[in-house]
Amino acid sequence: MALSFLISDTHARTRSLFVTIMCGGLAGCGFGLLMPLISLNLEAMTGSGAQAGVNAAAAALAMILATPFIPGLFTRISPRALLATSLAVIALGILVFPAVRDVWAWFGTRFVIGIAVTIVFIASETWINQLAKPERRASLLAVYATVLSAGFGSGGLLLALLGAEGWAPWIAGAAIYAAGVLPVVFLRGPGLIPPSGDEGSPLAMLTTARLAPAAILAGFLFGALENSFFALMPVYGDRTGLTTVMVGLLMTTGALGALCMQIPIGNFADRTGRMRTLALITGGAVAIPLLIIASSGFGFALFPLIFLYVGLASAYYTVGLSVIGERVQAGQLAAANAAFIFAYGSGSLFGPPLGGMAMDWINPHGFLLALSVIAAIYLPIALRNWRR
């Protein structure tokens, strides 16, 4: 009977892990499709790189404003019900874009979707950090990040197959998020442990951020670099004469870089030190955009560079989350992950608009220069922490 209980408990934990990792995959697939899809449509509607960047920042603004209050929501509403509702809101919201071809309506819709996506990310990241066994936390988070990257890749592939025009790509994006509702509702297992009243307050987010400041700043870099790249690389490709199919394949290549490099980089960080790894990642994040500029006239040379760049930039996510998971207690994880997402949202808010304005100022390579500058600002911090 004890053995039966143990097997049942193991299966229940596996079901919960499946739900959390599935949420990451669905979110990645939706982002991989929607970010370039929205940018390409805005480019056709307005011809402004800055407009595409500002629209991408709407989701980041929603993330920043909502994040401090989400841990508290977990204390008042069932986390599982909140997660399922958020997925449904995202699915319905996506269908607004093709139905209402208005820039300001798109801004508002993306803001609402941004709040729901923030709930999905904080819930799934907190949940998986709570479910992870301490000795395998980095490995499990690497699996989560790998599935997230696989989702990005499949989203870019959908863009290449469906194109950027008509209803088909939007319906596909809505269906992806709607598909996640049923597993969240019906696959039962250990639930997310909500924080206590004090641990769910906005002040708790600031308190936990002080436990791992370099990790929180890694979240900022991840948000700035990832969102700028996926929001503006399609516009960059369009301005340099690439076809929609080529742009979709480049997005898929970047997502494959993140998919293939997460686990090796996670293992490298475990063996050689996480701050050393962050410093090396940052060096690559400074250099590779400059190499992309130098090779932009050589077509297929873009593929290996983008593979490496997105793979390295995405590792800010894995390494940062693993540090947070090790340094805070289970009850504090919701607030700590909220701080990480807040930093990610802040980077997402500032990165794309700066990249878009830089692209309009130095057409088309300005946004790549902006990516290098953003990473260069973090490099001394990473080097200083590495030496410590």
From TrEMBL:
<dbReference type="GO" id="GO:0022857">
    <property type="term" value="F:transmembrane transporter activity"/>
</dbReference>
<keyword id="KW-1133">Transmembrane helix</keyword>
<keyword id="KW-0472">Membrane</keyword>
<dbReference type="InterPro" id="IPR011701">
    <property type="entry name" value="MFS"/>
</dbReference>
<dbReference type="InterPro" id="IPR036259">
    <property type="entry name" value="MFS_trans_sf"/>
</dbReference>
<dbReference type="InterPro" id="IPR020846">
    <property type="entry name" value="MFS_dom"/>
</dbReference>
<dbReference type="GO" id="GO:0005886">
    <property type="term" value="C:plasma membrane"/>
</dbReference>
<protein>
    <submittedName>
        <fullName>Major facilitator transporter</fullName>
    </submittedName>
</protein>
<keyword id="KW-0812">Transmembrane</keyword>
<dbReference type="Pfam" id="PF07690">
    <property type="entry name" value="MFS_1"/>
</dbReference>
